[in-house]
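Fig. S4 source data, part A: sequence.
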Amino acid sequence: RDGIVDQESVRVASSFKWTKGQSSVHVQERHVGIYGQWIDTWRPGSDREIALILEDDITVSPYAYVWLKTVHAKYDRLPDISGYTLQSEGFFKANGGGGLVTPKNHVVFGYKLIGSWGFSPHHKWWSKFQDWYHSTRKSNPEFRPYVPNASVVTSWYKGFEKRKRNDTMWTMWFIKFSDQNNLYCVYNNIRRFTGDVNTLLAVNRKERGLH
């Protein structure tokens, strides 16, 4: 709640020792929810920064950073890349019809849906998304980020709306933004490429929570 911080959470976060560089713990001054934590945690400062946004039930491979540095260096120059994801499973067709079959002969592929299980935004488009999101919410509070070409996730979002829980699905806004700007999220395709189902860059433990 606003003005109340769980001190045990702060203690645990502050006691964690990060040995790879500078680190800091940011304590929100007010309750910002999932939207605020995701959308406003990082504001790109330069095109050399690489951010990785993780939820608390994601286990990350020790090779994830190497992969992120590689794909950022290779694809950041392209005009239609929204970001990169460590997500290695849970692929589905945006318009329904089951799982997404990925190309076996490619180590990465692009898809308009964001992979939020370890997302690393493209610095340019993330800044533009933040500005678009806040200006849209301010200028048109009744705006709904429905995407006809992504009927599955739109249906999920509408379901959350009915239960007044759409404030837990920030990804719908990024999907809408990506659709408007014709952007693609770069996914790793390591499991399919290698044929090894145990080869992943990140694992979602799917612990009980808001979803």
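Fig. S4 source data, part B ends here. The radius of gyration is 18 Å.
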